[in-house]
Amino acid sequence: MRVKICGITNLEQGNAIAQLGATELGFICVPASPRYLEVSAIKTIIQQLPQQVNTIGVFANLDLNAIVTIVSETGLTGVQLHGNESPEFCQQLRTLLSPQVELIKALRIKTNASLAKVIDYAQSVNTLLLDAYDPQLLGGTGHTLNWKELTQWTSPLPWFLAGGLTPDNILVALSQLQPHGIDLSSGVELAPGNKDLNKVTQLFHQLDSIKGKSSSFI
Ligand SMILES: O=C(O)c1ccccc1NCC(=O)[C@H](O)[C@H](O)COP(=O)(O)O
After folding, report:
1. CATH number of residue 175's parent domain
2. What are phi and psi of 58, to 5 degrees?
3. Does ligand 1 have an atom closer than 6 angstroms to the CB of 109?
4. Is residue 142 in contact with ligand 1, taking CB distance under 6 Å?
5. Domain for residue 214, yes or no?
6. Which of 53, 91, 99, 163 has a CA positioned 20 to 30 A from the CA of residue 175?
7. What is the pLDDT of residues 93-146, one digit of tens each?
């Protein structure tokens, strides 16, 4: 299963988290976020990370050309769109990005109606990410989704489960759902942008404890 740790702000923590087993590190390119990182800093970190770890830039409502420029300047391996980007916007971005760059659409699920909209993105992105809704914050909210309701849902694409996941609740979430990946930020932090390596270690211990047991995704 893919494990994305989001909101990396420095090389030491990025390296340590990659060593612990993260498959993706997320970098927040949204200036309003306390986890925001300048493009030049992202580039410097990516150049020194092990090659096997994927590096995902998280954007919200930024224009197409700016995203493409940041990807080419930094060497990000993926783009996560976390704002109100339409399926048409995603389609356009898909054609502008190299095919090797993964395009992930994050959807903040407020009601079942938000879940119904997911299908609109099936042709325009590679991967989906379901996150919790908050009226003020776009992401990193620490709120969980209603996992029980999600059991009724079938994804048209590979997907990440996000929203309020922690080392303490991850096994409960994965006992109900079989996402292709999980995404954590505030649940493994000491403070916004400062990851708690003990919590990241605990997370991987929890995941190890169910490896090979419950489903083919883990
Ligand atoms: O994390 C942020 O500060 C952020 C700000 C603006 C847009 C997206 C943001 N985060 C996106 C992520 O992928 C987070 O990992 C996701 O929202 C889950 O966060 P959490 O509930 O804290 O685990």
Report:
1. 3.20.20.70
2. -105, 120
3. no
4. yes
5. no
6. 53
7. 999 999 999 999 999 999 888 898 899 999 999 999 999 999 999 999 999 999
